[in-house]
Amino acid sequence: MHNCTIGENIGIYPKLGDLVLMFSNSSIIGNCNIGNNVILSSNTIIKNQDVPDNSIVYGSSPYLIIKSCKEKINKIASSIFLI
Predict the structure, then answer these.
(1) What local confidence, expressed as pLDDT, does residue 12 receive?
(2) Are 17 and 36 in contact (CB under 8 A)?
């Protein structure tokens, strides 16, 4: 989506899994491992933290709210990515 950032921090870049959906103004910065089937809500900032597979993420590091929602994510991903 619009105004999203994926960037380095002290020369370390994030690693993203498959089907990562970033809503407006979300950022992934630095030493992060983002799992498969992950949705970042608007204005979410992840810095130097890991996110497991099949998660919806809200908030800003280090105070992230991570919800495991495999069924919802599969439904959203299939409608957006046409899988």
Answers:
(1) 97
(2) yes
User: Rounded to whole angstroms, how far apart are CA atoms 53 and 34?
Assistant: 7
Q: 1 with 20: CB under 8 angstroms?
A: no
Mean pLDDT of the chain: 91
Looking up tokens 């280090």, which residue turns up?
62
- Tokens 């619009």 sit on residue: 2
**Whether the Cβ atoms of residue 3 and residue 24 lie closer than 8 Å to each other:** yes
| Model confidence pLDDT, tens digit, residues 12-51 | 999 999 989 999 999 999 999 999 999 999 999 999 999 9
Q: What's the DSSP call for residue 78? A: H
- Are 75 and 54 contacting, i.e. CB atoms less than 8 angstroms apart? no
Q: Cβ of 44: how many Cβ atoms within 10 Å?
A: 24
